[in-house]
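Backbone shape codes:
***
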Amino acid sequence: MDENGIATIDLELSRRGVDIVELQETRLAGTCTIKEANYTFFWIGRPPEESRIYGTGFAISNRPLCSSQTPSGVNDRISVLKVNTKQGTIFTVNAYAPTLAASSDDKDCFYHTLEDTIRKAFIWERVILLGDFNARIVEDDFSWPKCIGHFGVENGQRLIQLCCKNNLVVTSTLFPGKPHRKVSWCHPRSKTWHQLDFVITRSKHKEEFLNTRLYHSADCDSDHNLVVSKLRLEPRTYHNQIKASKKIDVSNLRNQKLQKCYHQSLDKKIAAINTHTSPEEHWEQLSSSIHNAGSEAFGLKKRQDPDWYSQSRELLEPALDRKRAAMLKYQSRATRQTFADYHSAKSEAQRTVRL
């Protein structure tokens, strides 16, 4: 994930209407937060002086942001986010597992840390485990009836053992669907599709999941496709949002005509204030009279939008649309020509974003 491309990811996620997104292999240094038009991005990675590998992150919609706690990192492969809902707290774990080429010690260490993280959740909390596990789930619900539904894909022994020990279930195996909506990654050489990304929850809470499926058309500039789960939950708001008063355009203060209008308007408003009230109410009337008189005379300050994406939307969106069309064409028919077209459209979009 590139810091300059976060705005394009923000637009794509808003098109899908998802509330919380977990990101893996971000390859961004340190811990940081960026707020875009629709989502706030958090990422947890290695220190800046170390190599930029692994890393996890979250993209939380600005609507339920007040219901979410600040994400915390366990290490550069595992992070945790808590979300408050009316049904209870959701303990979400974001995981990026070692690949098949990693040593057995690295894999065992990862799953031991992951299991310790899951067990930190209270018994009444809803645990949702999401991420890129680089594992494939077998079509064997007879051997693992509590962990797998009737619609599994392939094999991943360590992941199945983790689910069995902690009473977890893989939600993507609970729902029927077309095979291409269950696979998230295509092998670059064999062109074979695999399901490596999963959404996992406690067995007692699986009824709250309405569906889990893949979206191949989501263009998030990743070789993995977007996995989306729909839940029957409602966020809980703990902080009431207080609307800030609009700012007065102070650049017009030197205009003598406007100053005269301001004094006249202020005298009228002060004369209309009811003095037989409490000090708090009297101050509220006085402050609102001063602000209203100033806004009427000098006008309100126009908000300057610092979002570079909004300013360049007309230039960026055509390039992103061409990139998305080339990606879908390559996914439907993987040939050298379609790959070259997709690579060219992707490079063009990257050059346009950097302008």
Notes: The longest helix spans residues 279-298.
